[in-house]
Structures are given as structure tokens and as C-alpha cells.
Write a structure and sequence with these properties.
- Helix content is 71%, strand content 0%.
- The chain is mainly α.
- It has two domains: 173 residues, no CATH class; 285 residues, no CATH class.
- It starts with 5 loop residues before the first helix and ends in an 11-residue tail after the last helix.
- The mean pLDDT is 89.
């Protein structure tokens, strides 16, 4: 089940809210929310619920051992055990076949190990349960007394499938004590509707345009204009798709009394790659910083070690997204850019006008998304080559031009919408006299919701891109 489906909008979500608020007390709400979350996950993954429950149970028991063990070495071993079990489950499902087949390919073997079916959201909930055990070990938070509450943290349906990755220490107090206010409910609903519109209107239309581009087998036949246009479409699709999901998750969480941190802060307004990664998928960046980069030594052990740590983190960031060499290359692409920024580029870009830095950053980001998009590196490199004149289509090919004419100015509108114009409009609207600002907000949210529902009824549904991770 997904947020942007009629089943969720008109059955699951309203029924969950009714049941949650029908009873009193945190035990009732937690029980309803836990049951709803397990049903939500089991809707499409009935068997793999066991993997999530098993991973949570192992870490629950290990955390208890950490708390009741005084010996430092034993405490560390229990922490390593909990983390290792969760990581092993993730590795078995997501990476085992990839590494085995890559090893066999080195020796020319034709045999291939089939990949296991990947449980939806396993990368997200694995990282979340790891933060729990590590935070207990670090004495950053107390161990949870009740397994049902830990399982609720891991499985809570708003952020279960595609994040944001919620660190346990940030949410621990809210599991046992929270409330929903009328203002919080209204703000959550507003955030949900905005996210729904991002996904159903902007992301899906950009995805439909991209599917009409001549990309079969790679981008070798593309023109310069067509290659950049396709890269722009995917750049917009993945932003509105993922940030739309995050908005919906944050909104639902707010309705239910949870406060999730922001996951996107207008990343396409960035003027450097470094700034881009402070604004894009913030929860993932925070996880790798707190649980990988800093434990490796961060930037405290000299320049060479800082560069090594940076490359390790970005290789792992790429692998987190998928068991494919394109994701590894994508991660190392950013690792290399951030290393160059550290070595000398920062001194150069600081002297350039902001507009030039913004254009250069967006160009690099779009090249990165091309690597991310394709299933193989040769296809990605063909498309990148076409972006810089090495394709067979010249400056503009006929097929790409037809797509551009069909979708007209929509990608331009979507690109403007990806920039921080909404806060400016909100600031202008709030200055209107009387209740005009509130009335205007209600009208445009109603229009956004109505259009989203109409699009869902009238189009074939496009699943969230990040569900595959």
C-alpha cells in the first residue's frame, strides 16, 4: 500500500485516524498504530514482516543486555551483535547475490546466483533499528522496556517504507507521551496534501514525459538538447517523488502527534555540491555522519584520513541505494566532488558569482542523476556523452522535440516549484488583510487535493522511486 493510492486515502488512513482517536490514552493509540503499521506493511509484503519483527526483537534483547552489563567489552559485543544481525539480514536480501555474481564474473564464470526478493523499505528500517542499539550503547538514550514500543518505532507506517530515517533518540519520548492538537492536525493535513500534490501531479507527469523519451538501451541516439531535457525530467521526478513522500510522512506523523525532522530543504537552490547534500535526504546524511563518518575518525585525523573517510562514506551511500555498480559509481562521483571541494574547489567557487555556482552545481547534480537512473554504466556514460555532443542526434532530435512540444512548459513550472518560491508566496499572502490569507490557503489546498484525486483516478499509478531501496 502506498500513500498516493485511493485505498490509502479513502479507506486505510481515515479508518486508522478514527480508531486512534476513538479511545483514550497512549496505550490505546500505540496499539492501534502498531496494528495499522503491521497491516500497512503486510498489505504488499505479508511474509517479510517477519524479517522486520525479527530484526527488531534481536536488537531489543541486545539493548537490554547492554544496559544490564557493566563490563565495557561485553557491552560492546552485545552492540555489535545487534547491529550485525540487522546488517546481515539486509546484506542477505540486498547484496549477497550482487557480490557473489561480481566475484564469479571476475573469473569468467557464467553461473549466476539469483537475487532474493527485496523486502520493501528494508534499508530504511534496518538503519532505524541500528540507531536504537547504538544510541543505547552510547548512553544517548535509555533502553526501551516494552518490545511493542520499539516495534512501533521501527514499523510506524508514516516513515516505514521510504523514510525519513528517524533516529531513535529523536523520537523516544514521543513514543510514550504525545498528543495531537487542532493546530497540529491542521498543519499535518496541509503538509500531507502538499506532498500528495508533489507526487501525483509533478513527479508522475515528469515521469510520464521521461518514459516517452527515446532512452531504450541508453542515450546514444539522443541529441544534446534531448539528453539534457531527459536529465532534467528525471532530476525533477526524483525530487518531487521523494520529497513528496517525505512531506506526506511528516504530515501524517504530525497528525498522529510525532515530530519528524525535515528531510529536504530546497536542494535545487544549492550553490555547491556540499550545500546540496546538506539539503537533500538530510536524514540519510545525518545517519552516515553520526554512525559511520564520525566513528571512522571524521576529519580529526589529518587530510589523507579525511579523504579516505569521505570516499568510504560515499561508496556506502551509493551501495545503500542499491546493489548495482551504477550506484557505487554515483556515490564515488559525489565522494570525488566533495574531495575536490575540500582540496581546492571551495577556494575557487567562493570567488565566483552565486549564479555561476548555482548553474555549475545543477549541471553536476543532473549528471549524477543520469548515473543513478540507468541500470548499467555503459548506458549512463552514453547518455552523459550525448549531453556533451557525443550522441547521434545532433543538437536536437525529432523524438525529443515531440516530447518537449507535448509537455510544453510543464517541466519549467515544475523546476520553479522545486525552488524556494512557496515561502515567498506564503510571506506575501500572510500580509493580506483580514482572513484572505487563510481563505486563500484553504482554496489552493482544496484544489491541490481535488487535482491529485482526479490524477489518481485517471492515470496508471507510478510507484515511489525510493520504494526499491
Amino acid at each position: 500500500m502506498v500513500f498516493s493510492s485511493l485505498t490509502f486515502l479513502f479507506f486505510f488512513f481515515p479508518l486508522t485516524l478514527i480508531l486512534c482517536f476513538a479511545g483514550k490514552g497512549i496505550k490505546w493509540r500505540n496499539g492501534v498504530l502498531l496494528a495499522a503499521s503491521l497491516i500497512f506493511y503486510a498489505w504488499g509484503e505479508p511474509v517479510w514482516v517477519l524479517a522486520m519483527v525479527g530484526s527488531s526483537l534481536v536488537n531489543f534483547l541486545c539493548a537490554k543486555k547492554i544496559v544490564h552489563t557493566k563490563d565495557k567489552r561485553a557491552r560492546k559485543m552485545w552492540m555489535i551483535l545487534g547491529v550485525s544481525v540487522s546488517a546481515a539480514i539486509l546484506f542477505a536480501f540486498k547484496y549477497a547475490a550482487f557480490f557473489i555474481n561480481s566475484f564469479l564474473a571476475l573469473f569468467g564464470a557464467r553461473a549466476r546466483v539469483p537475487a532474493l526478493e527485496l523486502p520493501i523499505g528494508i534499508s530504511f528500517y534496518t538503519f532505524q533499528v541500528i540507531t536504537y542499539t547504538v544510541d543505547v550503547y552510547r548512553r544517548k538514550t535509555r533502553a526501551q522496556k516494552y518490545f511493542s514500543r520499539l516495534l512501533l518505532y521501527v514499523s510506524c507506517f508514516p516513515q516505514l517504507i521510504a523514510g525519513p530515517i528517524v533516529q531513535y533518540s529523536d523520537i523516544a519520548s514521543q513514543i510514550g507521551k504525545r498528543e495531537t492538537t487542532p493546530d497540529g492536525f491542521a498543519a499535518g493535513m496541509q503538509r500531507f496534501v502538499i506532498g500528495l500534490g508533489k507526487k501525483v501531479i509533478f513527479a508522475n507527469i515528469c515521469g510520464a514525459a521521461l518514459s516517452s523519451m527515446p532512452l531504450a538501451g541508453g542515450g546514444a541516439a539522443l541529441s544534446v538538447g534531448g539528453a539534457w531535457y531527459a536529465a532534467l525530467l528525471y532530476t525533477l521526478q526524483i525530487y518531487f517523488d521523494f520529497s513528496g513522500y517525505s512531506d506526506m510522512a511528516i504530515g501524517i506523523g504530525r497528525i498522529l502527534g510525532f515530530s519528524y525532522k525535515e528531510n529536504f530543504m530546497y536542494p535545487y537552490a544549492s550553490k555547491s555540491v556540499r550545500e546540496f547534500w546538506r539539503r537533500w535526504h538530510i536524514s540519510l546524511g545525518s545517519f552516515f555522519r553520526d554512525y559511520v563518518y564520525i566513528p571512522l575518525g571524521g576529519n580529526r585525523k589529518g587530510l589523507k584520513r579525511t579523504i579516505l573517510n569521505t570516499l568510504i562514506v560515499w561508496m556506502l551511500t551509493g551501495l545503500w541505494h542499491g546493489a548495482n555498480w551504477t550506484f557505487v559509481a554515483w556515490g564515488l562521483f559525489y565522494g570525488a566532488l566533495l574531495t575536490l571541494d575540500l582540496l581546492f574547489m571551495r577556494r575557487v567557487t567562493d570567488r565566483l558569482p552565486s549564479a555561476i555556482n548555482w548553474v555549475a552545481t545543477m549541471a553536476l547534480v543532473m549528471v549524477g542523476w543520469v548515473i543513478f537512473y540507468y541500470p548499467s554504466l555503459p548506458q549512463a556514460f552514453e547518455h552523459i556523452g550525448a549531453m556533451f555532443g557525443a550522441g547521434a542526434g545532433g543538437l536536437m532530435d525529432a523524438a525529443s522535440l515531440r516530447v518537449i512540444k507535448t509537455y510544453s512548459f510543464f517541466p519549467l513550472i515544475a523546476f520553479v516549484a522545486s525552488l524556494p518560491v512557496a515561502p515567498l508566496i506564503g510571506k506575501w499572502a500572510s500580509a493580506l488583510p483580514g482572513r484572505r490569507a487563510e481563505a486563500g490557503r484553504v482554496v489552493w489546498l482544496s484544489v491541490c487535493l481535488a487535482l491529485s484525486v482526479l490524477f489518481l483516478v485517471g492515470q496508471s499509478y507510478n510507484p515511489f522511486i525510493y520504494f526499491q531501496f
